[in-house]
Specification:
five-stranded parallel beta sheet, 41% helix, seven-stranded mixed beta sheet, alpha/beta
């Protein structure tokens, strides 16, 4: 019978003491030599609208990381056995599946989550149960801010950073590209009204409006499941924004772009914030060349970063990710969400988990917490470029990576290009939209 190592077991107090003594006695290496696998619960939306919005590519990235590590012999000689579950693009299903993983599968480590509407309640529930949560893709700042979480960690960027990046980018580009002083820019902020969209919108308002003095001519949220966005399009036509900052998922983004074209809405630049805007293949498949020149603020796709700028060996990790993706998917464009799932899982499996085993003698929630707080990866030490150092207990964002950083990308000629920060750009930003684009405000 194959032995399974779980990240912790529910035992009577006496049994727990015996198990603890036994674990300490074997900490020199015998326990890990005998172990065959570590069970890890992995939660993503593999069906429903969020799957196409970025969750399924995120799952693929996580899967590639786990497969690659297992092919190398596992972590400290122990194989990872992922238990993949489908949240079906529903909050209640995600919560039920996570509870099943903990109560029935007896795992103490849950990894994954694409959408912030699931991430916010799950982080709180798992932490209250003293189960370790490694958030891979969800970005809502609200999932961590002022939550006083103990066993939850996130290396990914957070939603407040979207507004910082898009607004700083606009400030830097306003005079050169749009021939306006930043304070004369008319900016509209629209967003799905869940924690993800609301967080990004708040960051946009604080940075564009309060920090840089741009004119916020409209700020409005809507339900991601709304059947019609034409009233919002009508309001946008009325305010005549130069730039629209939009945070949404795939279905609502598709509806917005379609109804904007139908109602002849124009702009000089449209800046999306991750999720559906990070799915170039879906945008192009629906809108063709009309989707060109949309901007997207997000964690960068790893294949866009020169290997020479990263720590030795990371370029090969990216190549392996791209190879695996292309082997089972059509098209050459690898979505940024694949990099997010891959990167965050890789960080956990190659930095945190080995340290928990070697330094803290195990992989229960407490050992993983201590190992995470020891993480100190410099810039260039991950496949997405940014470093990793988690904010400590007592910080309002405890558990969040303080070194995470988004970039501004643009779809130019059916390719994804980095246009900001300028020191790592792969192309110059195209702004304002040329007259040939159907959304162009130029006459």
């Amino acid at each position: 019978m194959q032995q399974t190592v779980r990240l912790s077991l529910r035992l009577p107090l006496g049994s727990f003491r015996c198990a603890t003594l036994a674990a300490l006695a074997m900490a020199s290496g015998g326990a890990y030599a005998q172990a065959k696998e570590i069970k890890v619960g992995v939660v993503y939306d593999m069906s429903g609208p969020l799957a196409a919005g970025g969750s399924y590519p995120s799952y693929l990235g996580t899967k590639y990381a786990i497969d690659a590590i297992n092919e190398r012999g596992g972590v400290e000689g122990v194989k990872i056995r992922p238990i993949y579950v489908d949240a079906q693009s529903k909050v209640d299903v995600a919560i039920n599946e996570a509870e099943r993983l903990v109560n029935q599968e007896k795992v103490d480590l849950v990894l994954g989550i694409f959408t912030s509407s699931q991430c916010v309640p799950l982080a709180q529930k798992l932490d209250a149960a003293k189960k370790f949560f490694w958030a891979t893709v969800c970005t809502s700042t609200a999932a961590f801010k002022d939550r006083k979480l103990t066993y939850a960690f996130r290396g990914q960027i957070h939603s407040d950073q979207y507004g910082w990046a898009s607004c700083t980018f606009l400030r830097d580009m306003a005079k050169d590209k749009l021939k306006k002083d930043p304070k004369d820019l008319r900016v509209a902020i629209i967003h799905e009204d869940g924690p993800y969209g609301s967080g990004a919108a708040q960051g946009s308002e604080e940075n564009c409006g309060k920090k840089f003095g741009m004119q916020i001519v409209l700020k409005e949220g809507y339900a991601a499941t709304a059947p019609d966005l034409s009233p919002l399009v009508t309001k946008l036509k009325r305010v005549r924004a130069d730039v629209i900052l939009h945070t949404g998922y795939n279905p609502d983004i598709t509806m917005f772009l379609r109804q904007a074209k139908e109602q002849n809405l124009k702009w000089q630049a449209l800046i999306g914030h991750g999720s559906g805007y990070g799915q170039w293949d879906k945008l192009y498949g629906t809108f063709g060349n009309d989707a060109n020149l949309i901007f997207n603020v997000d964690a960068v796709a790893a294949q866009l970063i020169p290997a020479a700028s990263l720590a030795p060996g990371l370029g090969d990790v990216t190549k392996d990710m791209v190879r695996r993706y292309k082997a089972e998917n059509k098209g050459d464009d690898v979505p940024a969400h694949v990099s997010m799932g891959m990167n965050q899982t890789w960080i956990f499996l190659t930095d945190v988990l080995p340290r928990a085993i070697k330094k803290y003698d195990g992989f229960d929630a407490e050992a993983l917490r201590k190992a995470s707080l020891d993480t100190d990866i410099p810039e260039g030490g991950t496949i997405q470029g940014y470093g990793v150092k988690f904010l400590p207990p007592g910080d309002p964002l405890a558990g969040q990576n303080e070194r995470s950083s988004p970039v501004v990308m643009q779809y130019i000629g059916n390719k994804t290009e980095v246009v900001w920060p300028l020191k790592i750009k792969t192309a110059d930003a195209v702004m304002p939209l040329p007259k040939t684009n159907p959304y162009s405000a130029q006459r």
